[in-house]
Amino acid sequence: MSVMDDLYREHILDHYKNPRNHGTIDDADVSAEGVNPLCGDQLAIDLKITDGRIEDIKFHGRGCSISQAATSMLTELAEGKTVEEAAALSKDDVLAELGIPLSPVRLKCALLGLGTLRLALNRHSGTALPEGMAGMDEVDWR
Amino acid sequence: MTASDVHTRLDVERIRADFPILAREINGRPIAYLDSANSAQKPRQMIDAMSNFYATSYANVHRAVYQLGVEATEAFEGTRSKVRALLNAPSEREIIFTRDTTEAINLVAYSYGRTNLGPGDVIVTTEIEHHSNLVPWQQLAQATGAELRYVHIDEHGELRLDELAEIERAGSVKLLAVVDQSNSLGTINPIRDLADWVHGLGGVIVVDGAQSVPHRPVDVQAMRADFLAFSGHKLCGPSGAGALWGRRELLEAMPPFLTGGEMIRSVRLAGTSFNDLPWKFEAGTPAIAEVVGMGAAIDYLTGIGLDAIHDHETAITAYALERLAEVPGVTVHGPTDPARRGGVVSFSLEGVHPHDVAEILGADGVCVRAGHHCTQPVMDALGVAATTRASFYLYTVPEEIDRMIESLHRVRGIFA
Fold it and tell me: Which of A64, B107, B191, B322 minimizes the number of CB atoms within 10 Å of its CB?
């Protein structure tokens, strides 16, 4: 299987073309945004949190297939989890969902959503932020 | 139009044989290197010149009295006269070696800018600049209290010269910094007209020649520039060497930029007097072998002829524009007239992020750049986050454009 076929596997393209949990939450309890100035990818995540559990999660933004698909997959992982469980979601969890090897440049695309989710959870419940937000120092977190 | 209809004065097959890297394959396909605006590939003649220099003549320059030191100094200073000729500069003394264009522009911003600008003065630059010809002027404005004004671009990526009249009224225009040819859109700017404009107001013009000097004849006297900067690595030389040309009377009056060894005449504890031009601006041990390599690269290009190289790139660019127009969903940014642009084509493909385009093209061996190309204000003006950019040089063949187009169709298929 070539690099290209690997990177653009059907499930990634499916999440890119038909993102799950795409949109905004009008009465969100917390929101966060991540912008990678190097490639112009930007993501915003809204959360509805009830009794310490993620009741609803929506994202929107623009970016490459990897950043959008990874975030779509991440929202499926996070929905229904407690704040602590969601904050513990790791880089490896996201990469396992993608299921493909990524170059260092594309790794940053894949992890933009994770960083944004962690920021939102930190903002809401004070969960720990990993140092350097998973090695994404250049990202402008908002 | 097909690849065989592209006429060129260059013996491109022979030229390509000079570039060892072009024989490389990626995923079983030969590379199609379409990223020369980023950095150019290197001919054997340049690689050999550096390698031979290290193997036979290396020593530090300007101080050793033994034979090696003399040879190294001759080789190093030899590049200065090659750069002078390349730019048609009046004197070798006006050629200052720098690390690259960025350092050359910073030299002017610090040394000329901080001496000559203050509150009430206006610095002018444009929306189309590479960050290296924009950030130094923002910093200068902040440090001196001078006002920074921008000339914006229109929807074709051309400077809106009608804004100059309003800028004139903002204060005393002391300096205009402008790129000769845009790295992200390929736009060729009317430098001579802009020089006349700023001179009429008593100011100076700083020209970013990073994308023009490697690709066509540039004459600093004919364009009436005051300063011009370029990088060696974009003209088939090594990274780490570039040059600033400046008018002698301006350079003479400027204080040093970096200070230390080499740039001095005498140092006493009570004070220091500085060296003559150009060494006044060359503190420390320079990039000796890189400067020698840059000289070999200049010899290589001038041996082929920059006029012929320019004509070749124009033909390739016209072909690329025509072929890109065949791909549904492609929007080409920048001037629509091939005569108004250099060998750089930035485009968007509907529904596909440039990173995805570049990744798929890269897997096919087609090397293009995706991103903002260090011109974020240009991306803002176009209303895009990033573009895909293909850029050409003397070794580009139309068949490489065909491969890019074929790959773009593949991208469309994947994202359909």
Answer: B322
Q: pLDDT tier at B336 (50, 70, 90 boundaries)?
A: confident
Q: What are phi and psi of B57, to 5 degrees?
A: -130, 15
Interval B104-110 mean pLDDT: 98
Q: Could you tell me if B236 and B121 lie in one domain?
A: yes
- Both B196 and B242 in one domain: the answer is yes
Q: Hey, are the CB atoms on A37 and B376 less than 8 Å from each other?
A: yes
What CA–CA distances, in Å, run from B233 to A90, B208, B240? 41, 15, 7
Which among B352, B359, B386 is the nearest to A40, CB-wise? B386
B67 and B82 part of one domain: yes
Residue B406 domain boundaries: 3-42+305-415
pLDDT mean across residues, chain A = 89
Q: What is the pTM (predicted TM-score) of this model?
A: 0.92
* β-strands B121-126, B172-179 pairing: parallel
Q: For residue B346, what is the domain's CATH number?
A: 3.90.1150.10
Q: What is the DSSP letter of B238?
A: -
Q: Using the beta-carbon criterion (under 8 Å), do B356 and A64 form an inter-chain contact?
A: yes
Q: Does B385 touch chain A (CB under 8 A)?
A: yes
At which of B272, B302, B332 does a domain end? Answer: B302
C-beta atoms of B370 and A39 within 8 A: yes
Confidence of residue A1 (pLDDT cuts 50, 70, 90): very low
The whole-angstrom distance between residue B245's C-alpha and the CA centroid of its chain comes to 13
Q: What is the pLDDT of residues B119-135, one digit of tens each?
A: 999 999 999 999 999 99
Nearest-angstrom CA–CA distance, B287 and B26: 32
Mutate to test the interface with B, among A5, A7, A14, A64 (most CBs of B within 10 A): A64
Q: Is B350 an interface residue toward A (CB < 8 Å)?
A: no
Q: What are the catalytic residues of B? A: 374
